[in-house]
Each structure stands twice: as structure tokens, then as C-alpha cells.
Amino acid sequence: MKQIRIAYIGGGSRLWARGLMSDLAVESDLGGEVILYDIDYQAAVNNATIGNLMMKQPNAVGEWTFSVSKTLDEALVGADFVFISILPGTFDEMETYVHRPEHWGVYQTVGDTTGPSGVFRSLIMMPMYETFAKAIERICPHAWVINFTNPMTMCVQMLYHVFPKIKAFGNCHEVFFVQKILARALKEATGIDAHRHEIQINPQGINHFTWINYASYKDIDIMPIYQDFVDKYYDVGLSGDQWVHVGPFGSAERVKLDLFKRFGVIAAAGDRHLVEFLPHDWYMKDKAMIESWRFFLTPVSLRKEIKQRGNESAERIAKGLESVRISPSGEEGILQLKALLGLTELITNINIPNQGQIPNLPLGHVVETNAVFRRDDVKPVFTGNMPEIPAEITMKHIENHHRLLKAFDHKDLAYALEALEHDVSLSHLSKSDIKAMFDDIVPRLKPYLTYYSNTKLIKL
């Protein structure tokens, strides 16, 4: 059994940390220790208790110990792998940048990647990731760093911006779901019941705005099958009239189907992510339009409730009042570790700087494509050029990422305001409206924006 050490930044996480612990519990080829670090120390302590209890379950085959570090530096000592899964700021700040824009008719479905939320969340995140990157460079420069935090593209970009030689990539499960949709289309057309892993695809783009121009099952081209599938479900979506039961984190995927009709390529992300990258008038002009396209606006209040329930559950487990359960996440993080350790080989989608794998996007900018994992090596798969119109929209978002990096480099929020003025989803607003929104939100985030000391736009 291969022994390794994992440092987990954000080790008090309710979602990703629990998933990792479950995945480690059922993995027989790896063992070692996981060091949890979190600014919420008690949350990390509870997770360490839960992780150690998981290893005692009858169905656990992994041999892992979980402990807690009070400092980032201590957690990183001797790390072979570093996982990062944090919430930049708190849900109170998220509630501000997700819901305050509604006063200007701007609705945000997820609120963690692009639009006003992506801008402000990036501003909060970047100084934090500077700290992480510098600590990794100083303490464990050869460790592989796996990011799960959103905004994914900007998080990974910041790691490389601060520490260019870092071995980092970002994980997102968005294409897993589109593979399941493609498997469904294949089964309905042919009767073949394929697992998503058997559906070969060519993802290309940036996180949550990734496109697929190739889909295959063995010798079967799925693209024409998907065309018929789109025609079949276009009017009602993949859930039909039951779409209201997919929950506040779901959708009927009607936007995905519409985008295929527009561009002839498959949008990989769920509708709630996709619409935030696109012009306001396409799908989110008002709540009536949102309902007609059958996707949900997820309130931050619900995220707060879920967090509270997770905290209460963790406390009960730690006190022995609730049994612990092993629930494998379905993610590929452990498969990636095994491949990087030379135990297997893997091809999967990740977010890393563009080395030419997407020729018509800028070199060095973080993009999402497939990559080949081998012993201590990750090589992106060449995808070819993105289709023209998706590439044009993608470039607008990439240009905004560069503006945000300038805000960090110059410690000046003027570049963030410029990013808002160029955001695709705000193109219907006047500059005065965007400035009013900016001036309304910035003071509410004051404790998390003190890094930007050179700004003259607003008194912090």
C-alpha cells in the first residue's frame, strides 16, 4: 500500500472533505495521513473525528489517519498533495454579491464564477491564494496541488500567477453530467446502456463554460444522435413537467439544448452556470423568462441552511449521537492521485494553463480540457480550435480575468469596476448603473477588500 501525506486547506468543508474521506475509506491501494487546516478550527476537528471513525467502519479498506493543524505552514510540511476547498469570505458576503445586483434587475443563478459574483468573489479570493501559493512554494514546492474552489479558473490562475512553477490543476465534475446525458441519448436511440466513463468527449473552454465538439461510444458517433435528442426534448427539457422537482440546484437543461441549436456544439456545464456567462437578454431578462427556460435561482439563504445542518450533523457524529456513513463522492480525485503516483493511467478533464491545447485561446491562461495523468506528470490533450462564437464569448471572460489580475497586481479596485463594465451579463446596463452597483456592494465587503489599498474610487 502506497503511503502519502495530504494537506487539506479548508479541511472543515462539509462537502468536499467528507467526499474525500469517503473515497479514501474505500480505496485499498493508498494509505497515509491527511492534515486538515481550516480557519474554522472546530469544523476541522469535527471532520478529523469523522474521518477516523470512517476508517473503523466494516466496509472501510483504506488505512488513513486524520489530524488537525492550527497553522497553514504546519499543515503543508511534508505534503505530497495539497487539496484546496475553501469558501472565499462567508455566506454573508456571498449573499451581498449574489443578491444586491437584483436591485438593478441582475439575477445570478449560482453566483460563484462570473458576473458581479465572479468579480467580487475573485477580489476576496486572490489575496488568500497569494498566501497559499507562497506557502506552498516555501514549504512543499514539489507537491501536487488540486483546487476545488470557485471561481475555478481564477483560483488556478492565481496559483500560477504567484508561483509559476507550481504543479497545480483544478477539478470540476461538470462534464460528468453531460456524459450521463450523452449516455441517455445513446440508450434512447440504440438501446445500448453505457456508463459515462465509456463516453469519449473533447471538452474545451474555461470552467463552467466548456464545450464539446466530439462525442463517441466505441465506433458510434453520438453527435448526430444528440441532435435528434435535442429536437425531442427542446420544448420541455430533459425533466419534462417534472423539472420543478429537480431542486434548487438543478434545471431542465433547456438552455443546454438551445445552445446546441445556436452553435452546433454541446455546452458541458449545467444551465445555472451557463446562463451567467451569456447576455442578460438571452435567458435571464426577468423571472418570467427564467421560469420559461426551466432553471432555478438558488438563494444564498438555502446555502446557509445547508451549512448549518452540516455543522449540526458533524457535532452529533463527533459526540457519538449520530452514526457515520461512508458515501463515495463519484469524483475522480483519488484516481488522479493513483495516476500521479504511477499506479495507473487516467484521462480526465481538468483546469490548467493553456500550453497550446486550445490554439485560439491565449497561452498561459487557465483552460479546461482533457489531460493525461501518469507518474508525476499531467499533459493536456490537444483539442483543436474552439468554435468561433463560443470562443468570442470566452475571450470576453478571459479579458475580464486579466483585468482582475491587474486589480490584484496594482491593489486597485478600478480594474474591478472595469471588469464589471465589460461583463457580458451586464451589457444591458449603463456605466452609471454599473458604478452605482459597484459603489453599493464594495462597502458591504469592506473587511475582505482591505488589500486593495491603492483604490481611489471609493473610500473603504
From TrEMBL:
Pfam families: Glyco_hydro_4, Glyco_hydro_4C. Keywords: Carbohydrate metabolism, Glycosidase, Hydrolase, Manganese, Metal-binding, NAD. Its cofactor is NAD(+); Mn(2+). Binds 1 NAD(+) per subunit. Residues 205-423 form the Glycosyl hydrolase family 4 C-terminal domain. The keyword ATP-binding does not apply. Belongs to the glycosyl hydrolase 4 family. This is Alpha-glucosidase/alpha-galactosidase. It comes from Paracholeplasma manati.
